Structures are given as C-alpha cells and as structure tokens.
C-alpha cells in the first residue's frame, strides 16, 4: 500500500463512519505515524508503507472510525505552541483554554514583582500549569487534581517543557492538598474546572462523551457545583488583590458573574469571549 492508496482508503473509511473532516483526520494520523509534514505525503505519494506502518495506520483508522479522538490515538496534542502528552485520564486541551493563559499574563502585569505564586486547579494534563510556568518564567505554580493518573501525565509534560522544577503537582480535591504545604497565598488562581451540566451529556459528541474523563467534564446538575466551591474557597488562598481566572460553560457567564458579585470579597469582575464569540472566561479580583 502506497501513501496515496493509504490516504484514499482512510478517507473513504472515515467518511463511511461520518467522521467530520475525514481527509484532514486521515492526513493528521498519517503524518504523525510517518513523522512527515502534510505536503510531504503528496510529494512522496507513490512511496510504499512498510508492513509495520501499514498495520499501525489500519489500527489508527479503525480506532478513529470508532470515534476515539485523534489526540488519544497519537498520544499528544499542541497547546500554546508546545507538545503535550494526553491519555484518556486527561481532557484534550481546547483552543479556548489558551485564553486562560492570556488572562494570567495580563493579571501578572498588575503586580510589581515578577516572582508570582500561581495555583492551577483541576490541572489534568498540566497544559495550563506548564504554559503558565513557561510564559511567566519567574513564577512558581501549585497544580492540583483529584486524579493520580492525570498528575503522572502532567508531571511528564512539565519535564517535556523544562519547567518541572517550578511546578508542584499535588493530588487532592481543589484547594484541600494545599493545606499540607508551606503555601502562603497566590497572586493568581487559574482553572478549567468541570462545568458541563448533566443535562448536556447526551448532546455531546461521542469523542467527548465516550472517551474523555467524566470527572473532568461534568459539574453536577447545572454544571456549577465545582465552580461554586471554587468561588467560595478561593479568597482564602488568594493574596489581597489576587486574581481568580476561570473557564466556564457557554451559558454560564451571567450566573457565574452573579455568584462572584454576591460574594462581597471580589471586585473588578469581567467576562471575556472566546474565538467563537462565546462568553468563556470569567475574572474576579480579591479585594485588597
């Protein structure tokens, strides 16, 4: 089977199973397998695959036909221009989550010191903690998660990106594990918590519903269970003037803004839209 034959077969197979963007998916999986760029597939379209390559590619397409996300098949994804390992123990980072890093960088500029302490709750793959540490090189990051398996991946991603010495990964529920450390208070808390409501579960794509970790996705009946806890507990872990930066669901902006306003310890509340115009990021600042 040549590269061209492999692509032709794969696109047809994926289209039969109604996989969106079948051609792009086939190209992505084959470029990963052969360690070639997309244009090289077409420049070398008549080259035959080895028996091992052909077998691996058939397996890739079979898995993708069963709606397994391509990122889990290849075992990695890109976030903020860096490669991150992902498994079914971690969420697959979305482009809109990169806005959390933008907000963290903007918040960091509010402080005179560059030596900031940052908390990343529900760290998962560690993409937020690692990216923050990379882009704010004088910072120290505390990253928590209830999943030990996810933390193993997060630690590996920190090593991949050369920031393992500046991130403390701690197993536990939200802020609780910080009580057993020498933690003194954060300038910034950043988090992509579980916020999908149970009512939305059946409307999710199979790639999400059937493969991504439910503990990292679902936030109770209305999707706000974890968010409410974070809003209530965060001021006790923020320094005066510190920032809470959260990713939220597509229909939660006004509700979350209301929760922050009702808690009189916050000020400067703002909402930021994502690339699709959805109100996606909420920021609140602890009163000084």
Structure at a glance:
This protein is of the alpha/beta class and 288 residues long. The protein is built from twelve helices and nine strands.
Descriptive terms for the model:
alpha/beta; seven-stranded mixed β-sheet; Rossmann fold; Helicase, Ruva Protein, domain 3; 288 residues
Please render the helix and strand layout as text:
Elements (H helix, E strand, L loop, with lengths): L2 H14 L5 H13 L3 H6 L7 H15 L4 H5 L1 E4 L2 E4 L12 H11 L8 E5 L5 H9 L4 E6 L2 H13 L6 E5 L14 E6 L14 H4 L4 H4 L7 H9 L4 E10 L5 H10 L3 E8 L5 E8 L2
Parallel strand pairs: 3-4, 3-6, 4-5, 6-7
Antiparallel strand pairs: 1-2, 7-9, 8-9
Written description of the protein model:
By secondary structure, the chain is α/β, with parallel strands linked by helices. The protein has 2 domains: 3-66, Helicase, Ruva Protein, domain 3; 88-286, 3-Layer(aba) Sandwich (Rossmann fold), CATH 3.40.50.150. Helices cover 39% and strands 19% of the residues. Strands 5-4-3-6-7-9-8 form a 7-stranded mixed sheet, with helices on both faces. Helix 6 runs parallel beside helix 7.
């Amino acid at each position: 089977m040549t590269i061209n034959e492999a692509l032709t077969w794969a696109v047809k197979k994926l289209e039969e199973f109604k996989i969106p963007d079948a051609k792009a998916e086939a190209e992505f999986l084959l470029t990963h397998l052969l360690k070639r760029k997309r244009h090289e597939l077409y420049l070398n379209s008549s080259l035959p695959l080895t028996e091992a390559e052909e077998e691996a590619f058939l397996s890739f397409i079979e898995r993708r036909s069963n709606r397994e996300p391509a990122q889990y098949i290849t075992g990695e994804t890109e976030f903020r221009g860096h490669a991150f390992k992902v498994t079914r123990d971690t969420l697959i980072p979305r482009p809109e989550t990169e806005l959390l890093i933008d907000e963290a960088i903007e918040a960091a500029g509010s402080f005179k010191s560059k030596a900031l302490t940052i908390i990343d709750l529900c760290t998962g793959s560690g993409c937020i903690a690692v990216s923050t540490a990379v882009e704010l090189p004088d910072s120290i990051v505390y990253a928590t998660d209830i999943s030990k398996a996810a933390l193993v991946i997060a630690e590996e991603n920190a090593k991949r990106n050369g920031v393992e010495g500046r991130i403390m990964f701690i197993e536990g529920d939200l802020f609780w594990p910080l009580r057993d450390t020498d933690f003194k208070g954060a300038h910034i808390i950043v988090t992509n918590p579980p916020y999908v409501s149970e009512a939305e579960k059946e409307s999710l794509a199979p790639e999400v519903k059937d493969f991504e970790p439910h503990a990292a996705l679902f936030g109770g009946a209305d999707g706000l269970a974890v968010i409410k806890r974070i809003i209530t507990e965060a001021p006790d872990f923020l320094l005066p003037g510190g920032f809470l930066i959260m990713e939220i669901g597509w229909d939660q902006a006004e509700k979350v803004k209301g929760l922050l306003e009702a808690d009189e310890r916050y000020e400067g509340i703002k909402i930021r839209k994502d690339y699709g115009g959805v109100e996606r990021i909420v920021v609140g600042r602890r009163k000084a």
